[in-house]
Amino acid sequence: HLEIGQAVLVKELELPASAKPDAGDEAIVIQVIEATEDPDELEEGDPLAAPSQPEVIGQKKEDEE
């Protein structure tokens, strides 16, 4: 459980002995920050915007049948 402002670093991960991370030990894997804007109010394409529904790959669209 992470609180706002906390982060997980590469050195904190429990990796198998055979795994060699590309990043250094002090690299941040994930960090919790406080939202400054409502993601639902941001424009589509903004990296902070709320995610839209992903495209389902492999399912035929109605006009392709």
UniProtKB/TrEMBL annotation:
Region (Disordered): 36-65
Composition bias type Acidic residues, residue spans: 36-46
Protein name: Uncharacterized protein
Organism this protein belongs to: hydrothermal vent metagenome
